[in-house]
Write a structure and sequence with these properties.
CATH class of the largest domain: Alpha Beta
CATH superfamily of the largest domain: HAD superfamily/HAD-like
Helix content: 40-55%
Mean pLDDT: 96
CATH architecture of the largest domain: 3-Layer(aba) Sandwich
CATH topology of the largest domain: Rossmann fold
Radius of gyration: 17 Å
Length: 223
C-alpha cells in the first residue's frame, strides 16, 4: 500500500522522546554502573512482551521493578528509588523542533507508551512542549504492551482515525514493526539503535534523526 501523509502522528515515549539520564543517575546513586540501565530496560521489555504473548499483563513499573530484581541485588527501597526517577525525565533537545514542525503543518500529535500514565505528560510539560501534544496515551488502559496489535488499533480509535491515517514514530525497530503490521505508517530513526533490524518489515520511513523522519512524513503525498 502506498503511504500518504498522516492526519495524526503518535510518538513512542521512552528513549524516543525522553532522555532517561535521571534514571541512569539514580542507578549510579545505588552504587551500580549507569550502563546497567540498558540491560534492565531490555529485561523490562522482555518481561512485558512475554506476558502479553501468553495472555497475562503487568504494569510498567512492576515490570521494571521485576527486571531490577533479576539483574541486581538492590533492596526494594533502592529499586523504588530508581523507578521514581522516571518522574524526573525530560525531552531530548530535538523533540521541540520536531513537534513544532508537525503543529505548524496542522498535523495532530499524540504520544503512545506502555509506560506509567502521567509520566509522559509531566516530562513534556517540564520540557515546555506539552502544548504541542494533543493527548498522551498509555496502553495500561487496555492492559497490553506494544507491539501488540490491539494497542495501535486502540490508539487509532481514540484518535478517531483509520489506522492508515496514523503514523508511529519510534527509535525502536520492534515498535515500528508492530505498528506497521497493525496498518499504521511506521517511522524509525537511529537514536537508541544503530540500525533497523533486518528481520523486520522495512520501515515505511526511516532516518538518522527524529527531525528527518518528521520531514519525511510531512513530505508524503496527501490522501
Amino acid at each position: 500500500m502506498t503511504r500518504s501523509r498522516p492526519d495524526v502522528v503518535a510518538f513512542d515515549v521512552m528513549e524516543t522522546l525522553l532522555d532517561l539520564s535521571p534514571v541512569r543517575a539514580a542507578l549510579e546513586e545505588t552504587g551500580r554502573p549507569g550502563s546497567l540501565l540498558a540491560t534492565v530496560f531490555a529485561r523490562t521489555l522482555l518481561t512485558g512482551f512475554a506476558g502479553v504473548a501468553v495472555g497475562s499483563w503487568a504494569p510498567f513499573r512492576a515490570t521494571f521493578d521485576a527486571a531490577l530484581a533479576q539483574v541486581t541485588d538492590l533492596s526494594e527501597a533502592e529499586r523504588s528509588q530508581v523507578a521514581d526517577a522516571f518522574a524526573e525525565t525530560f525531552p531530548h533537545g530535538d523533540v521541540e523542533p520536531a513537534l513544532r514542525r508537525l503543529a505548524t503543518a496542522g498535523v495532530r500529535v499524540v504520544t503512545l507508551t506502555h509506560g506509567t500514565p502521567g509520566v509522559a505528560e509531566a516530562a513534556l510539560e517540564r520540557g515546555g512542549v506539552g502544548a504541542l501534544v494533543e493527548r498522551s496515551l498509555s496502553s495500561e488502559v487496555v492492559r497490553a504492551w506494544k507491539p501488540a496489535r490491539e494497542v495501535y488499533l486502540w490508539a487509532a480509535g481514540v484518535c478517531d482515525v483509520e489506522p492508515q491515517r496514523l503514523a508511529l514514530v519510534a527509535a525502536h525497530g520492534w515498535d515500528v514493526h508492530g505498528a506497521q503490521r497493525a496498518g499504521l505508517t511506521g517511522a524509525w530513526f537511529a537514536r537508541s539503535e544503530r540500525t533497523y533490524p533486518a528481520v523486520y518489515d522495512e520501515p515505511h520511513v526511516s532516518g538518522g534523526t527524529i527531525l528527518e523522519v518528521v520531514d519525511a512524513l510531512l513530505a508524503l503525498p496527501p490522501r
